[in-house]
């Protein structure tokens, strides 16, 4: 019988603070090379449009922006990409207009290795 590796799930919730600005939703810090299979952000609690950005420490030290996507109010977001990473990766969210209150922002992704 051949062993077929299965990705592991990871999830959590960020409390997006009313302070606004760009806030890190999730940061992945691998101890070994790993693969991240997509990422889902549940933005249903957000009442304003926003921006999701993905960063990676490509050189192992400094974060570099690798994608940026606008989102509509209350619209959930699926980052449909596979990332092979050896260094830290993070996903951030920035509100376009003040939410006026802290909002829960759940997320989930799957990974192998790390």
N- to C-terminal distance: 25 Å
Order of helices and strands: EEEEEEEE
Record the strand order, biggest sheet: 1-8-3-6
Count every beta strand, where a strand is a DSSP E run of 2 or more residues.
8
CATH topology: Jelly Rolls
Main sheet? Answer: 4 strands, antiparallel
Q: What value does the average pLDDT take?
A: 92
| Rg of Cα set | 15 Å
Low-confidence stretches: none
In brief, what are we looking at here?
This protein has 114 residues and is mainly β. The chain has strands at 8-16, 23-28, 34-41, 50-56, 64-71, 77-85, 89-95, 103-113. It has a single domain, classed as Mitogen Ypm (Jelly Rolls, Sandwich), CATH 2.60.120.
Protein model, in words:
By secondary structure, the protein is an all-beta fold. It has one domain: Mitogen Ypm (Jelly Rolls), CATH 2.60.120.510. It has strands at 8-16, 23-28, 34-41, 50-56, 64-71, 77-85, 89-95, 103-113. The strands form two sheets. It has a four-stranded antiparallel sheet, with no helix packed on it. It has a four-stranded antiparallel sheet with strand order 2-7-4-5, with no helix packed on it. The mean pLDDT is 92.
